[in-house]
Design goal:
The complex is a heterodimer of chains A (about 280) and B (about 400). Chain A is built from eleven helices and two strands. With about 280 residues, chain A is an all-alpha fold. Chain A has a single domain, classed as ABC transporter involved in vitamin B12 uptake, BtuC. Classes of the chains: A mainly alpha (about 280), B alpha/beta (about 400).
């Protein structure tokens, strides 16, 4: 059973790394980014292509950098011009972008399901709780933890983090105080996109590459963000961990309800706390 | 300039080849298949199979002097969309249908055939229902059903040393059927099925299922997962040390599209092999050579199986000397023909199932490439399950 809890932790960590970007973007710009799954998918494909030449770690780095650059473009070309429009417009535009990205990947990389090998150093198993467990999965837990700790340190203790918190609290007052909110926003979208892209690379050795991979995981990440409280990192963290456990325990104890449980969790928590676990605090 | 020259050459060649055919109606075949959606890789295979058979026939002057024309429709793998796509083909004069992927689409088309005055010959649908409770005078199957795959597995399973088995299957009609039939086959030859696990279609993380399988400590696992699900289960199962230490056999693992997705992980996995390019017969070698000439790579299972359905249809049109669905259906009931890789095959009138051999094999390295390789050939007499009493024409 302990091993199943660990399995839940792996999926939870991956979900958090992906959903943290969604939470950040919503916190700062009030953007519901339907293209977030597409960024995750693009990251995986870009990383895959780079890794064929230079290995897994270079693939991870390249995916992070390329997606960060894409994030800056996305912020300047899409989010900024639309910031005073109805949020529904941005939502529809990001949805359209996700469809375009999926078609683009389809025409460049094709429709075949591809698998992406984990790095050699981590392609082993460990004896744990009287069974064997892949080291790569432990590394995913480490990746999720590093993202969580990194984001907290950045937001709490750096000057830019202070600006991010100020701008998400009240962009107008922050701007009046001399914070360049456009710059802060470009940075946050870049970080979010880079995290999505790197999550795609990290997930790929488990979940194979397909153009639909982004759309597949987007639903789970939205549940994480909505249940956690839109825009809250702490809430997203708790929900991701909860969802990871529910996923695994559902399979073991209530196999007929596996696909329903995340939604039941969402309905239950939103009925109890309509603003999500953490309300709207960053 | 160059383009028009090619066009002229093609026209001239066409005229030369088809001069006796001018008098007869062309043979129009509609292929409602997955051009988009979750089964798009398989739909592309069906498309290539149909086009190859048509081109081969046309190069020889057509089928009984009739030019073969193929038209496609997109089913998106969805029964409702598939029914509409097929209806559109029928209304445009393509009344002889084949090539759908999902059994659900095949069944949806099958129910309308008599109303449309059309005919459908399955090339990929495995669900037993097509030739059992849903059978009808206009529906045929030229590929292996679930019952046939299991008829091949049963005697083979008896010879295996593995006593304890666990089933992992996709949680919908096909996976449930497959699990049930495997459990029955296992019980019949004195093996234990310790657990049957069902994962929803599109499951991303198989870790909780893999751990449960390991907890049961089976000697063998029966895997009824397809496409991306099969790839994810395979890759993750290897990471957990499950595949490689436990014997694995599956209905749809050992096919080129899945092998390509899994990479090295696929090596050593067993499977039902309905067709593989490595079949060691002179007829197959000639077929593979022709295919490679046209496509630059070896034929995959659904390409060859759609080719079989097309050839069966051609034989019936020749026999009936007509393209009217009613006459072709009548001729199909008793048709028999030679398929380069299966040898002599014939239709069983009782349930409209084509009778042919089946194979069990495993994924092995051939000339450096992973391919399904046949280990057991099951001759036609043993490969056939008896017609279902539920089928009333």
């Amino acid at each position: 059973m302990a091993i199943q809890v660990l399995n839940g932790l792996v999926y939870g960590a991956l979900l958090f790394a992906l959903a943290s970007g969604l939470a950040l973007m919503f916190g700062l710009r009030r953007i519901v980014n339907f293209a977030h799954g597409a960024l995750y998918m693009l990251g995986a494909y870009v990383g895959y292509t780079a890794s064929l030449q230079f290995g897994f770690w270079a693939g991870l780095a390249v995916a992070g950098l390329v997606l960060a650059a894409l994030g800056v473009v996305l912020d300047k070309a899409v989010f900024r011009p639309l910031q005073h429009r109805d949020p529904l417009t941005t939502l529809l535009v990001t949805f359209g972008l996700a469809l375009i990205a999926e078609d683009l990947v389809l025409s460049v990389w094709g429709n075949d399901t591809m698998s992406f090998a984990e790095p050699q150093q981590l392609a082993h198993t460990l004896s744990l709780f009287e069974t064997t467990f892949p080291i790569y999965r432990l590394a995913i837990v480490g990746f999720g933890a590093a993202v969580a700790i990194g984001l907290v340190l950045w937001l709490r203790f750096s000057r830019v983090g202070l600006f991010v918190r100020a701008a998400s609290h009240d962009p107008v007052i922050a701007a009046v105080q001399g914070v360049d909110t456009d710059r802060v926003s470009a940075l946050v979208v870049a970080v979010s996109a880079a995290l999505a892209g790197m999550s795609g690379v990290v997930a790929a050795p488990l979940m194979s590459l397909a153009p639909s991979m982004g759309a597949d995981i987007l639903v789970d990440s939205f549940i994480v963000v909505v249940v956690g409280g839109l825009g809250s990192l702490g809430g997203a963290f708790i929900t991701a961990m909860l969802l990871g456990q529910i996923n695994v325990l559902g399979v073991v104890f209530m196999p007929e309800l596996t696909s329903l449980l995340p939604f039941l969790l969402m309905i239950g928590i939103l009925l109890w706390k309509p603003t999500g676990l953490a309300g709207a605090r960053l | 300039m160059r383009k028009s020259k090619i066009l002229l050459t093609v026209l001239a060649a066409g005229l030369a080849a088809s001069s006796p055919a001018l008098a007869k109606d062309p043979l129009r075949i509609g292929v409602p298949t997955s051009l988009t959606g979750p089964y798009v890789e398989l739909g592309e295979e069906a498309k290539r199979g149909a086009l190859f058979a048509a081109a081969e026939a046309n190069a020889k002057g057509g089928v009984a002097g009739r030019q073969v024309i193929v038209e496609f429709g997109d089913t998106e793998g969805n029964p409702e969309v598939g029914r509409r796509a097929a209806e559109k083909l029928v209304h445009s004069g393509f009344k002889l249908l084949t090539g759908s992927i999902s059994s659900a689409v095949g069944l949806a088309i099958g129910a309308q055939l008599e109303k449309w005055d059309a005919l459908y010959i399955s090339s990929i649908n495995k669900s037993n229902r097509l030739t059992a409770e849903s059978c009808n005078p206009r529906m045929f199957r030229a590929n292996h059903s679930d019952a046939m795959d299991m008829a091949a597995v049963r005697p083979w399973l008896k010879t295996r040393g593995e006593q304890d088995w666990v089933v992992i299957a996709a949680d919908y009609a096909w996976g449930r059927d497959s699990a049930q039939e495997f459990a029955a086959a296992a019980a019949a030859v004195g093996k234990n099925v310790k657990a049957q696990l069902f994962a929803p279609l599109g499951t991303k993380d198989y870790a909780p299922y893999i751990q449960q399988i390991k907890d049961h400590k089976p000697a063998g696992i029966w895997v009824a997962l397809a496409g991306r699900d099969a790839v994810n289960f395979g890759v993750q199962g290897k990471q957990f040390g499950l595949l490689g230490s436990v014997f694995a056999i599956s209905q749809s693992f050992a096919v080129p599209s899945t092998i390509k997705g899994m990479g090295d992980v696929a090596e050593g996995i067993w499977g039902i092999v309905n067709y593989t390019s490595t079949l060691d017969t002179p007829g197959n070698k000639a077929f593979v050579a022709e295919w490679v000439k046209a496509h630059g790579k070896e034929p995959a299972n659904f390409e060859a199986e759609t080719y079989v359905a097309m050839k069966t249809l051609f034989a019936a049109v020749e026999k009936a000397d007509s393209v009217e669905p009613e006459a072709v259906a009548k001729a199909l009931e008793t048709v028999s023909l030679d398929i380069p890789f299966y040898g002599k095959v014939s239709m069983r009138a009782a349930d409209h199932q084509l009778m042919m051999p089946n194979f069990i094999g495993r994924v092995a390295r051939v000339d450096g490439q992973l391919k399904p390789v046949v280990e057991v050939t099951v001759p036609t007499e043993q490969a056939m399950a008896p017609p279902s009493p539920a089928c009333k024409m």
